[in-house]
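ok trying again, last paste got cut off:
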Amino acid sequence: MAREMARTNDYLVPHLDGLPYLDKPIVYFAAAAGVMELVGFTETAARLPAYIATLATIGLLVSFARRRWGDEAGWLAGLAYATMVLPLAYARAAIFDSTLTLCTTAAILIPLLVLVPHALATGASVRRLFPWRGLVAFAAIALPWFVAVSMAHPDFPGYVFLRETLARFTTRSFHRTAPWWYYLPIVPVAAFPWIVPALARVRHWRVTWAARRDPATHEPLLLACWVIVPLFFFTLNQSKLPQYVLPLMPAFALAATRNLLEGENAAAGARTRAGSPGSPMPRPCCLSPTPARRSSTARSPCAPPRPSWER
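nice, full thing came through this time. structure:
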C-alpha cells in the first residue's frame, strides 16, 4: 500500500494492486510512503515508521514518569517498555499497531474507554472529559480525511462501521476466532519480564477499590482501567490477534515503574526507622500507594500531583 501510494502520489486513499484498501487508517501507509519517496522502495523505509512510533512511545513514557515520580522513574519506564517482548517484536513490523499504540498512549497521558470508567470509579466529573475545545480539535483532525474518502467512495462509512467494526466484533467471518481465554497466556508473555513488578500489588486491590475516592488511589485505578477495560472488549471480540494488546503494554511499564519505586521507598523508610529506634511513626498518608516524587519541587512527599483531567 505504501509503495503504491508513493508511486501514484495519492495520499488520500490507500490502494493494493490498484484496488482501494479501506481496511485500515491511512497514517502508517502515508508515513511509509513519505519515507520511500526520500530513500527509495526499501524494507527499511517500510519499517521505519514503526521504529519511530515505538521510540516516540518510549519518549512519552519517560516524560510522563519523570513528571510524576522523578528522573529515575522516567528512565525506568522507558527501559521497561523498550525491553518488553511484544513492543520489541512489533517495533520492526510494517503494520500500524505501533503507531496505534503511540496515539493511544499520547491520548491517555486520554481514550474515553479508560477515562470514563476511571471517572465513574473515583467520583470525578465525567463532563470534564468532554471540553468543547477538545471536541472541536478532535473533529478538525479526524473528520477531513473521513469526509474526503467518503466522498470518493460512498460505501466507505458502511464498510468501516458495519464490516470492519461490527462484523469483526460479532461474527467469525474474519477467521480469527479464538476462545475467551485467548489473551490470558498472551498478556504475561507480551509484558515479560515487567509484568512481575507491574502486578506486585494486585493482592491489595480491595483496599485500593475501597479507597477509590482518595486521590492517592487514582493512579493505580487509571492503570487498571487502561488494562482491564480494553482487555474485556478484546476478549468479547470474535476476531483476536496477539498484537491487539500492544496498546496495553505502556500501562504495564508505568505500573512496574510505580511499584518498583514504591518498594524502594518503603525499604528506605524501613532502614531509616530501624536506624532510629526513637523516631516517630510515619504519617498514615506516607503509606499510601503513591510513590513520592524525588524532587525538591514536589508539593509534599505524601501528596501526588493531580492528574491533568482533574484540574
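cool. The chain has 14 helices and two strands. Confidence is low (pLDDT under 50) at residues 279-290, 294-311.
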